[in-house]
Design brief:
Layout: H1 39-42, H2 50-58, H3 67-72, E1 77-83, H4 95-105, E2 111-118, E3 121-130, H5 133-137, H6 153-159, E4 163-168, H7 170-179, E5 187-192, H8 201-211, E6 218-223, E7 228-233, E8 238-242, H9 248-251, E9 272-275, E10 284-288, H10 291-298, E11 304-307, E12 311-312, H11 316-327, H12 334-347, E13 350-351, H13 352-373, H14 378-381, H15 384-390
Parallel strand pairs: 2-4, 4-5, 5-9
Antiparallel strand pairs: 1-10, 1-11, 2-3, 6-7, 7-8, 9-10, 12-13
Helix pairs in contact: 11-13
This protein binds flavin-adenine dinucleotide and iron/sulfur cluster (2 copies).
Length: 397
C-alpha cells in the first residue's frame, strides 16, 4: 500500500484569506494549494534561505567577494541577445516564449507553467499549465501584477506529469525550489525573469492613472535603460515619462509591501534568467546560472543574435543622491525631470552598470522600508549579499 504524502492532508487557503506571511505576502500561489503544508520553510518572506537553495540548485552559493556574483547571482555565462525575428506582442523580443515553445515541441517537457490573462482584463494574471505552443504564446507579455503562479502546483501532481518548465519571478521561484522535491517530478526546468516594484491589480490602476496620459489603452510598459517609463498603447504609439518626473509621493504606497521588502531582483534560483536591465537598449539580458540553463538557451541559439555584456559609467553618486529624494517623496517639475533624464542618459551608467544602479537603488530603498516597518525581520530577511550592497551607501535614519 502506498502512503499519501503528508502534504495531501493540508488545507489550502481561499485566495481571499490572510496569508501566513501577512502583509508581506506576494500572493505567489503556494498557499492556494496543499503545499501550504511547507509554507514555514518555503515562503520567501517567512524563511529567507537563498544561499542554501542556490547551493542545491546550482552546486554552489554566490561568491560574495566577487562583484558580478554578489550582484547578479551564481552564473556561468552572461550576454545580451535578441531574437532575429521577434515574437509579435511579446514583452521584449520573446526569448522566454521561444524557449518554452522549443521545449514543448522537442518533447523535453510535457507542460509549462506560465501566465495568461483573464478574458475581461489584459493585466489580470491567470496561471496555466500550457501543453501546446499556442498556450505558451497566449501567455506572452508581462502581467505587471502579483501573480499566483504556484496555484497550479496541485494540478501537476494530479496530472502525473514528470518533466516540467516553470516560468516565474524571484519570490515564486524561491517557494518552488523549497518544495521541488515534493512535486514528484523527474526533471524541473526553471526559466526566470528579474522582477521589481510589482503591484496589486488595484495598485497597477493607480500607477497607470497617475503616470500615463491614457491609462485605459496601455498594453504594456517597462522601466527602461534610458531612465524613462515606456508605455505602449493599443494604437502602437509609445509614450515615455522620465523616472525623475514620477509622482513619488503618490506612488510611494503603490508598490506591494512584499516588493518593498524583496531582495531577489535577479531571480537567484532560476536555471536561466531573461531580463533586459544588463543589456543595451533594445536587447535582452541573459544570465545562465547552471548547465540546465545552458541547455535551455542552446535550444534557441539559432534564433538569436548575441553580443557580450558591457559596463560603462559610475552609478554610485546617482544612487546616493536618489536615496533622500525618494525617501522624502520629491517630485521634480516635468521640464527638470526631462532635462535630468537627457543628461543621465548621455553620461549615466550603461549595461551592467545600469543593472547595478537599479539593484542599488531598490535594495537601499527596500532596506529602509523593512527597517521602518519590520525592524524585527531585518537581520534574517536581508540576504548577506544585499547587506553588503546596501553598506556602500549612507542611509537616512
Ligand atoms: P515574453 O516572451 O513576452 O514572455 C513573458 C513571460 O512572462 C510569459 O511566459 C509569462 O508567463 C510570464 N509572466 C507574465 N507576467 C508574469 C508575472 N506577473 N509573474 C510571473 N511571470 C509572468 N526585467 C528586468 O531586466 N528588470 C526589471 O525590473 C524587470 N521587472 C519585471 C517585472 C515583472 C512583474 C515581470 C513579469 C518581468 C520583469 N522583468 C524585468 C522581465 C522583463 O520585463 C521580460 O519579462 C523578460 O525580459 C522576458 O521578455 P520576453 O519578451 O522574452 O517575454
Ligand atoms: Fe503563502 Fe506565497 Fe504568500 Fe508566502 S508569499 S504567504 S508562500 S502565498
Ligand atoms: Fe516577488 Fe520580489 Fe517581484 Fe515582488 S518584486 S513580485 S516580491 S519577485
Amino acid at each position: 500500500m502506498t502512503v499519501a504524502p503528508s502534504h495531501h492532508k493540508a488545507k489550502a487557503l481561499k485566495s481571499s484569506s490572510r496569508r501566513p506571511a501577512k502583509d508581506l505576502c506576494s500572493e505567489c500561489g503556494l498557499c492556494d494549494t496543499y503545499y501550504i503544508h511547507y509554507v514555514k520553510d518555503a515562503c520567501a518572506f517567512i524563511h529567507q534561505h537563498i544561499a542554501e537553495l542556490e547551493a542545491e540548485a546550482h552546486g554552489r552559493s554566490r561568491n560574495l567577494d566577487e562583484s558580478d556574483d554578489r550582484y547578479f547571482g551564481v552564473h556561468q555565462d552572461m550576454m545580451a541577445a535578441r531574437k532575429t525575428e521577434p515574437v509579435p506582442g511579446a514583452q521584449w523580443t520573446g526569448i522566454v516564449s521561444s524557449i518554452a515553445i522549443e521545449m514543448l515541441n522537442r518533447g523535453i517537457v510535457e507542460g509549462v507553467v506560465c501566465i495568461q490573462n483573464t478574458e475581461d482584463d489584459r493585466f489580470q494574471p491567470k496561471p496555466v499549465i500550457a501543453r501546446t505552443p499556442a498556450d505558451v504564446l497566449a501567455a506572452r507579455v508581462n502581467k505587471p501584477t502579483l501573480s499566483p503562479n504556484l496555484s497550479v502546483l496541485e494540478q501537476i501532481e494530479e496530472s502525473g506529469m514528470k518533466r516540467l518548465l516553470v516560468i516565474g519571478v524571484g519570490c515564486q521561484i524561491q517557494a518552488l525550489r523549497a518544495v521541488e522535491k515534493q512535486l514528484g517530478l523527474e526533471k524541473l526546468y526553471v526559466l526566470g525573469t528579474p522582477c521589481v516594484d510589482n503591484v496589486t491589480r488595484a495598485g497597477l490602476q493607480k500607477f497607470l492613472e497617475t503616470t500615463s496620459r491614457s491609462p485605459d489603452t496601455v498594453v504594456h510598459y517597462e522601466f527602461m535603460q534610458d531612465f524613462r517609463v515606456h508605455f505602449k498603447h493599443e494604437d502602437g504609439s509609445v509614450e515615455t515619462v522620465p523616472f525623475f518626473g514620477l509622482n513619488t509621493k503618490e506612488l510611494k504606497d503603490v508598490f506591494a509591501p512584499s516588493c518593498m521588502s524583496c531582495f531577489d531582483y535577479v531571480n537567484s534560483l532560476a536555471d536561466l534568467v531573461v531580463g533586459y536591465m544588463g543589456a543595451p537598449f533594445g536587447w535582452q539580458w541573459i544570465v545562465v546560472r547552471n548547465d540546465r540553463g545552458q541547455d535551455m538557451l542552446d535550444l534557441v541559439q539559432d534564433q538569436l543574435e548575441t553580443q557580450p555584456v558591457m559596463s560603462q559609467g559610475d552609478r554610485r553618486q546617482a544612487v546616493q543622491q536618489s536615496i533622500p529624494a525618494y525617501d522624502k517623496g520629491v517630485t521634480l517639475p516635468m521640464w527638470a525631470a526631462k532635462l535630468m533624464g537627457v543628461v543621465i542618459e548621455r553620461i549615466g551608467p550603461k549595461g551592467l552598470e545600469y543593472a547595478r544602479f537599479s539593484i542599488d537603488s531598490h535594495f537601499t530603498r527596500n532596506y529602509l522600508y523593512l527597517k521602518r516597518h519590520h525592524p524585527e525581520k531585518l537581520e534574517a530577511h536581508v540576504p548577506e549579499y544585499a547587506k553588503r550592497i546596501v553598506a556602500q551607501y549612507t542611509l537616512p535614519e
